[in-house]
Each structure stands twice: as C-alpha cells, then as structure tokens.
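Q: What residues go here?
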C-alpha cells in the first residue's frame, strides 16, 4: 500500500507562503475551482499529489524558443 500525504487548508496556505489563504481555499471549494480535495465529515484535506498536479497545471513557461540577438548602435 502506498502512503499518501494530506495537507489541511492551513498547511496548504503555508505551502503557498500565505498567498493562498484558508479563506480563499474555502471560497474555491464552494465554487469547485482550485486544487482537488477530500472531505471526510467536516475535515477537508488536500492530497499532496493533487497539489503537485495543480502546480504543474498552473505553471507558466518562460522559455524562449530561440536566441534573441539585440544589436545596439551607440555612435561612440
């Protein structure tokens, strides 16, 4: 059996350095957006694998496909 790690909303907020608050997570859950979660009774838990997948989904690639040459003419 594989062991899964789960995070509370407070731990998720810490993971994202407070940028995503527990209140924001609560709002996202009610709107069914944001990372997937598990609810057991009143407990809300976020599987680490789901947070990793959500990170990957929201990753912004900044790689330039080719080299950009900039030529400056100073006149000096």
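A:
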């Amino acid at each position: 059996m594989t062991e899964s790690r789960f995070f509370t909303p407070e731990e998720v907020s810490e993971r994202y350095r407070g940028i995503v608050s527990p209140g924001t997570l609560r709002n996202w859950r009610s709107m069914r957006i944001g990372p997937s979660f598990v609810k057991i009774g009143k407990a809300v838990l976020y599987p680490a694998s789901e947070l990793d997948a959500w990170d990957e989904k929201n990753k912004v690639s900044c790689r330039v496909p080719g080299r950009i040459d900039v030529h400056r003419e100073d006149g000096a």
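A: Context that may help when evaluating the design: The chain has a mean pLDDT of 89. The CA atoms of residues 14 and 20 lie 8 Å apart.
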